[in-house]
Amino acid sequence: QVQLVESGGGLVQPGGSLRLSCAASGFVFSDFGMSWYRQAPGQGRELVALISSAGASTHYDDSVKGRFTISRDNTKNMLFLDMSSLKPADTGKYYCVAHTGPGKSWGQGTQVTVSA
User: Fold this and answer.
1) Which one, 18, 64, 66, 106, has least CB within 10 Å?
2) Is the model's pLDDT at 101 over the cut of 90?
3) What is the predicted pLDDT for the residue at 103?
4) How far apart are CA 3 and CA 73, in angstroms?
5) Backbone angles phi, psi at 36, to 5 degrees
6) Rg of the chain in Å (alpha carbons)
7) Considering the chain, what percentage of its residues have pLDDT values greater than 70?
């Protein structure tokens, strides 16, 4: 059974930084692409960043390019999202997603709030 557990969210001031982590289990982590999605209050879920199974290829939404970095450690079954120069518009619940099939597998999410 796929399990994805996010951590690292919190309250941060504009311009600050956070590192989100996702611990994966229940599947062969190194075989699948992974991504981070976020959902702002009252909005749908949107793709933030995507990384290939080996980590060689990444993709970012235009709104986070140059500020966020997605990475993974296949030896520890971990996914990361390093976020810097955070803006209030980055506020939302961030989800770790495993591209294990057509329906994907989702974690429970971790809240990020950017506010002065």
Assistant:
1) 66
2) no
3) 80
4) 16
5) -115, 130
6) 13
7) 100
User: Residue 93 corresponds to which tokens in the numbers above?
Assistant: 């619940």
Residue written as token pair 């709030």: 113
Under 8 Å between Cβ of 6 and 96: yes
Could you give the CA distance from residue 11 to residue 91 in angstroms, rounded to a whole number?
A: 9
Express each pLDDT in 46-95 by its tens digit: 999 999 999 999 999 999 999 999 999 999 999 999 999 999 999 999 99
Three-class DSSP labels, the chain? CCEEEEECCEEECCCCCEEEEEEEECCCHHHCCEEEEEECCCCCEEEEEEECCCCCCEEECCCCCCCEEEEEECCCCEEEEEECCCCHHHCEEEEEEECCCCCCEECCCEEEEECC
d(CA 102, CA 100): 7
Q: How far apart are CA 35 and CA 47, in angstroms?
A: 7
Alpha-carbon distance of 105 to 1, in angstroms, equals 10
